[in-house]
Amino acid sequence: MSKLLDYIRLSFFACGLLLGVQIPAFVSDFGQALNAHLVESDAAIAPFKKDAAQYFNNDLNKLIKHYQNLDDEIVGKGANHINTLYERQQSLQQAVNEFTQSPYLFTLSSEFTTIKQQVWHHFEGQIILKKDSITAAIITGILIAMLAELCGFLLLVAFRRSYKKLLGVNK
Prior knowledge:
The chain is mostly helical.
């Protein structure tokens, strides 16, 4: 029985290792996706920035206000779309900067859930043996093994208590 428990514990540790080695790959893919969205956003806003540079001394907000102040309803709605593009580009630029400073923490706490879901949907397991992936694998393996050990212990204690209550009732 002891050997069986050792094998189960080792299996949990191995599963934790395999899971943990995926973390840096996911973080890397998330960073690449953020950069791709930023490049796309920069391309979408570029013509308007060019107009702002030409007519409003590089102030895109002045261009947006100019469009909004025109009496044309269609141009006013266009100004709102430009503003949306600009805000998206600014938030993505800030996200890329924060990701660069602390990739793991930013990936964990980021509010860009749509991009995370896209990355997760297209994520394929990869094993990249770099220092951070080995560290993440070992830490995750130990944590999962410890969690499994704790769950097993709590389950065993619960079984013992219920067994003792069952025996106490039958006596």
